[in-house]
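o-succinylbenzoate synthase
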Amino acid sequence: MKLQGVELRRVAMPLVSPFRTSFGTQTTRDILLLRAVTTSDRGDAEGWGECVAMSDPLYSSEYVDATADVLRRFLLPELGASADEVDRHGAYAVGSVLHKFKGHRMAKAALEMAVLDAELRTEGRSWARELGAVRDRVPSGVSVGIFDSIPHLLDVVGGYLDAGYVRIKLKIEPGWDVEPVRAVRERFGDDVLLQVDANTAYTLRDARHLARLDAFDLLLIEQPLEEEDVLGHAELARQLSTPVCLDESIVSAQTAAAAISLGACSVINIKPGRVGGYLEAVRIHDLAAAHGLAVWCGGMVETGLGRAANAALGALPGFTLPGDISASDRFYRTDITEPLVIEDGHMAVPSGPGLGVTPILEILDSVTTATEWIPL
Ligand SMILES: [Mg+2]
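Structure:
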C-alpha cells in the first residue's frame, strides 16, 4: 500500500447547545479531519482520520492549529520518507515511524486512523473486526455539562434518560459537585448509573469535600486532580470509596501501567486521540484487562467518523462500563456522516469496510473552512 498524500480539512460544526466543562465552554467544534489517499494492487482507497484536539490547549496541551502544523512540518514528511515501512506494515508502522517525535499524540492518532481506515477499506475489513470487537452494539452513556441552575440540569438529564441513555455522567467543578449529584439522585433515583468528571479541577486538599460524593453510589469520579498528579490520585483513591478513574493522566500504555502499579486508579477512560491512536488504545485495554481494571471509551465531541470508530473500540471485551458514545444528535443537528443513533440505549457497531461510515460530501463541504493537499 502506497500513501499518495493526505488532505488536511478543517471543519466548523455548530453544537446543538453550549457544552460547559470545568475548563471552558464550547459552542462550535473546530475539527481537523485527514483524508489519506492510498494506492495498492487492489486499487485506490481513501481513509479518514479525525483529530480530537480542541481549538485551545485547555483539555490537554494540544490544539487544532498545532496539530495541523506538526502534521505539515514533521509527521507527514516523516511518513513520506518511510514509505517502504508503510508499504510493508501498513498502519501498524505509523506509530513506530512517528515515535521519535515527542508528544503530539492527537495528531499522530489522526494520521494512524486515516491510514488504517484506507487499509481496511482496501481489504474490505471492518474497524471493529480489526480491533477485536466481540459485540454488535454498545451501551450508550452521555456526558452532561455544567449548568447555571439545578432545575435546568434536571430538565436536561431527564431528556437524556427519556432518550434511553443508560448512564449519566455529570461534569463537575468546585461549587458544582455535591448539590447537582444529590439533586439528580433525588429526582431520578438510585438505579440510574451515575458518574462524575472533574477534568482536573480539584487538588488533594479537596479530598474531604470530594469524599462527600461517596454517599451517592457513583460508578466513579473521573480525573479529579491535575494531569501530572498521579501520586495525588493514588493518595485520593485511598481516601474515597468512590472508584477513581483517570482520563487526562493516561497518555500511553506505559503511563497506564505506572498508574495501575501506584494504585492511582481502578478504572481508565480510554480515548484513542489522547493516547496516540486506536492501536495504543487496544494495548491499554489489554493491559487493564490483565490487571482486572474496568475501562470505558471516552468522547471528544467527535463527528460520525470518530464516533463510529469509538463504538467499535467500545465493543472490545474489557470495555465493561458504558462509554460516552452518544448519538450524533447529542452534539450536532447535522453530522457529516449518516447520523449514528441509539436504540434501546445502545449504538450499533458499524460493520462495513473501514470505519463503516463515510462523510457525505455535500454536508462536509458546507462545514469546511479550509483544505490543504499534501502530497507524499
Ligand atoms: Mg474526562
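The chain has a mean pLDDT of 97.
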